[in-house]
């Protein structure tokens, strides 16, 4: 059995992008280690205690069968043009560069004797600056450690079609749908399609642990609440397959290991 290390930008990303795959790998007997680059906190006055989201992450990881959770020590970089200093003095991930966080990740890979590292695609999924940072960090650490790398993604064309339909229903703006044309990975570059339909219920259970995010306003929180309300069979057509791009892969596969 192998040790798999999954690097994510924020708590809750592990459920949305790879939750079924992590649960499936754990169920198959592989050892799964989750690393989160940031604690997901902007550390403003209106936020809960900084440890809350990491506590929620630990709960979600347990639901997925993850063996260990590590935080690289950075703060969420947030959205928008401005990157304000963190009130608690933490370095925001977008300000950390690549060398230091990649060195921290490489140390974890070596200590865990990891055989597989999961990062993010070159688009950072939907382009969040912390997700772009995770892409660069994972690539650097994999190169340093010699660990096989796969990158969580989705078929770009499928995302574009889904968001175009949502825009027609006025669930999102036309600008959001247009932006998706640069998100994720073209379908012909997706190398692994993992069937996780049996693990959708576990994905929901893990997602439910992220109560801080679920309670927020905004489209992402609304989507999370919807995913939790629907039965697993109803969201399986959307959430029952997870996708990966392996830079060094020569063949397509329905398995990571």
Q: Could you characterize what this model shows?
A:
It is a single chain. The protein is of the alpha/beta class and 257 residues long. Helices cover 44% and strands 16% of the residues. The protein has eleven helices and seven strands. The protein has helices at 13-27, 52-64, 99-112, 124-127, 129-145, 156-168, 174-179, 200-208, 211-214, 219-229, 232-239; strands spanning 3-8, 31-38, 68-74, 116-120, 148-153, 192-195, 241-245. The chain has a seven-stranded mixed sheet with strand order 3-2-1-4-5-7-6, sandwiched between helices. α1 links the parallel β1 and β2. α1 (13-27) crosses α8 (200-208). The longest helix is centred in the middle third of the chain and has 17 residues, at 129-145.
User: What structural class do helix, strand and pairing data support?
Assistant: alpha/beta
Query: What is the strand content?
Result: 15-25%
Query: What's the helix count?
Result: 11
Q: Determine the mean pLDDT.
A: 91
Approximately how much helix is present in the residues? 40-55%
Main beta sheet: strand number and arrangement?
Answer: 7 strands, mixed
Order of helices and strands: EHEHEHEHHEHHEHHHHE
Distance between the termini: 9 Å
User: What is the global morphology?
Assistant: globular
């Amino acid at each position: 059995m192998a040790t798999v290390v999954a690097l994510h930008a924020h708590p809750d990303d592990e459920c949305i992008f790879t939750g079924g795959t992590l649960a499936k790998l754990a169920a198959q007997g592989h050892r799964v280690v989750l690393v989160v680059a940031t604690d997901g906190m902007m550390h403003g006055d209106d936020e809960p205690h900084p440890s809350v989201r990491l506590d929620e992450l630990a709960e979600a990881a347990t639901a997925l069968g993850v063996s260990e959770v590590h935080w690289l020590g950075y703060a969420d970089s947030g959205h928008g043009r401005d990157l304000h200093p963190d009130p608690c003095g933490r370095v925001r991930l977008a300000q950390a560069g690549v060398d230091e966080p990649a060195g921290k990740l490489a140390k974890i890979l070596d200590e865990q004797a990891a055989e597989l590292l999961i990062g993010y695609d070159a688009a950072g999924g939907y382009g969040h600056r912390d997700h772009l940072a995770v892409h660069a960090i994972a690539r650097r650490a994999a190169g340093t450690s010699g660990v096989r790398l796969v990158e969580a993604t989705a078929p770009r064309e499928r995302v574009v079609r889904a968001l175009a339909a949502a825009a027609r229903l006025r669930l999102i703006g036309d600008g959001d749908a247009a932006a998706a044309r640069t998100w994720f990975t073209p379908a012909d570059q997706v190398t692994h399609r993992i069937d996780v339909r049996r693990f959708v219920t576990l994905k929901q259970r893990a997602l439910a642990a992220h109560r801080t995010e679920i309670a927020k306003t905004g489209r992402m929180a609304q989507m999370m609440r919807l995913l939790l309300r629907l039965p697993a069979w109803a969201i399986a057509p959307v959430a029952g397959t997870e996708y990966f791009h392996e830079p060094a892969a020569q063949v397509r596969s329905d398995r990571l290991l």
